[in-house]
Amino acid sequence: MQMISIAGLALSVLTIAHPVIASDRVPLRDGFYAENSEKCAEFRKGELDLPPWQVAKGGRQFQGPEMACVVASVKTVLPPHRHHVQSTCREYDTISHQSFILDTPTRERFSLEGEDYIWCGTTHGQPKASRPTPANIRKLSDRALIDQWGDLNDDCRGGSGDDPKTDQACGRRSDVADELQQRGFCYRAVKGGQDWVHCGK
Hints:
Blueprint: H1 2-17, E1 21-23, E2 31-34, H2 37-44, E3 53-56, E4 61-63, E5 68-78, E6 82-91, E7 94-106, E8 109-112, E9 115-121, H3 142-158, H4 164-182, E10 185-190, E11 193-198
């Protein structure tokens, strides 16, 4: 009984010393983030397929290579830089709720799961590949089709919700996904993330 009382007192003191501050956005500058300045330089030249993370909408959207999230709440758990983030995320056609700890020593740096990232800017340097039309999707090789799906997925997830081009990219992405599924591909977890692989593997 005495131990419970002491533990409760310690928790009360901790709460008073470190009040929880809640928000609905991550305290980071909008833009793209990579592991270091060299990766940022490659990204600006268009030599990276996709940056590891992107912050948008004033910190309300937090997006990784395979997942786009809308921030639900951000609570400061260790002032001034450590935050508990809760979000609703979309990974391809799957909706899930994600919870993670985010360290933000500045508005242009953060750490997530032991990895450090720095701000690279607000412009994606990657030139967009030509977009397939439904008529020529079937002519593409498997690898080219998967690459096209990746470009369209980037446009669909990263575009503005009120931009018609975003809807077009999402629609074309669905066309490409249908063709990949007809060829026997499945979108699932692989080493290092998720990708289209033959369903039998």
